[in-house]
């Protein structure tokens, strides 16, 4: 394990800032949920730009309101939502690698575009894993900087791993324009049809993929309720079964619920299908009232796109390993 030092001091905690690595896996049989970044895409690019490998812990900032002061010179990257951030008295650059000096303040205001920003620091934030992960799940009191799922509070000291002194030249300074989503645009969400899709009425299937859905204000890291034409399933109830990231359940009122990272581990409502991980990421950035549409997707295409994304953002760790090998 690399040496660590204090990277930031929290001068104002804001409503919700959580430490998130890739998530907690292999424990759902214990009733423990996944956690991890609600927006995998922005989280992955934050690490990529900071020169970190896949799985490195990042700070997920929801709704803004967070203020941090650097306790040493740092290299950081902030991606995802525009939370009206500022570095000292200047606008905080997004989707690019920047350097900040000791004593400088990073301030997040209110959401302008999207809901969740991701702050990665070169080397990564440091915390003790719980059940193999530092992912913070407040409900289950697991993970985070203290291992007990506590939200940040004023005065907290955030430790970071001391990064390697040599960052490879192949790491981008700025994310390509096509990788920066317009979070204000209507979201098109790819959905893999689920096991119970054939049990929905024909009209419901037509509405599911042709109607415009609105994001309800009942939304958090557990899931997002969509409002629109009621969907009807011929199955009155099911024996509870395992629930995956992005599962779209339809309760008796006919309004679908897309389940996210802090979801329950089992559920008994029929499922229309499953959002792809990147579609779930896009939904996690939608504000209440925002318009979304569901688009049927095949497993082969979804898997190909997901693998391409992983290869793209995870290259950093391979580049850093190659650079270390060349220097030894």
From TrEMBL:
One of its GO terms (molecular function) is ATP binding. The keyword Hydrolase applies. SUPFAM superfamilies: Cyclophilin-like (SSF50891). PANTHER family: 5-OXOPROLINASE SUBUNIT C (PTHR43309), CARBOXYLTRANSFERASE DOMAIN-CONTAINING PROTEIN (PTHR43309:SF4). Keywords: ATP-binding, Hydrolase, Nucleotide-binding. Residues 29-310 form the Carboxyltransferase domain. It comes from the Bacteria. This is Allophanate hydrolase. SMART domains: AHS2 (SM00797). InterPro entries: CT_A_B (IPR003778), Cyclophilin-like_dom_sf (IPR029000), PxpC (IPR052708). The lineage of its organism: Bacteria, Pseudomonadati, Pseudomonadota, Gammaproteobacteria, Pseudomonadales. It comes from Marinobacter guineae.
């Amino acid at each position: 394990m690399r040496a660590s030092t204090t990277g930031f001091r929290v001068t104002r905690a804001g409503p919700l800032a959580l430490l998130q690595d890739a998530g907690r896996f292999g424990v759902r049989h214990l009733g423990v949920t996944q956690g991890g970044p609600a927006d995998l895409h922005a989280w992955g690019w934050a690490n990529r730009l900071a020169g970190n490998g896949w799985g490195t812990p990042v700070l997920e900032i929801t709704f803004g309101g967070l203020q941090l002061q650097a306790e040493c010179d740092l290299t950081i990257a902030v991606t995802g939502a525009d939370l009206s951030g500022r570095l000292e008295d200047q606008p905080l650059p997004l989707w690019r690698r920047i350097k900040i000096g000791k004593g400088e303040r990073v301030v997040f205001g209110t959401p302008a575009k999207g809901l969740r920003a991701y702050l990665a620091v070169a080397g990564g934030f440091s915390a003790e894993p719980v059940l193999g992960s530092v992912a913070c799940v407040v409900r289950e009191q697991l993970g985070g900087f203290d291992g007990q799922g506590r939200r940040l509070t004023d005065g907290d000291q955030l430790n970071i791993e001391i990064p390697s002194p040599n960052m490879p030249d192949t790491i981008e300074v700025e994310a390509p324009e096509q990788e920066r989503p317009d979070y204000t645009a209507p979201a098109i969400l790819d959905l893999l049809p689920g096991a119970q899709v054939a049990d929905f009425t024909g009209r419901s299937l037509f509405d599911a993929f042709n109607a415009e859905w609105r994001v309800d204000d009942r939304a958090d890291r557990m899931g997002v309720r969509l409002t629109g034409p009621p969907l009807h399933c011929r199955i009155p109830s099911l024996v509870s079964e395992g629930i995956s990231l992005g599962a779209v359940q339809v309760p008796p009122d006919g309004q679908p619920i897309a389940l996210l990272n802090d979801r329950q581990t089992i559920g008994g409502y029929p499922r229309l299908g499953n959002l792809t991980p990147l579609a779930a990421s896009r939904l996690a950035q939608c504000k209440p009232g925002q318009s979304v549409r569901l688009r049927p997707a095949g497993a082969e295409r979804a898997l190909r796109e997901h693998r391409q994304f992983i290869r793209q953002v995870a290259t950093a760790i391979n580049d850093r390993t190659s650079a270390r090998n060349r220097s030894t």
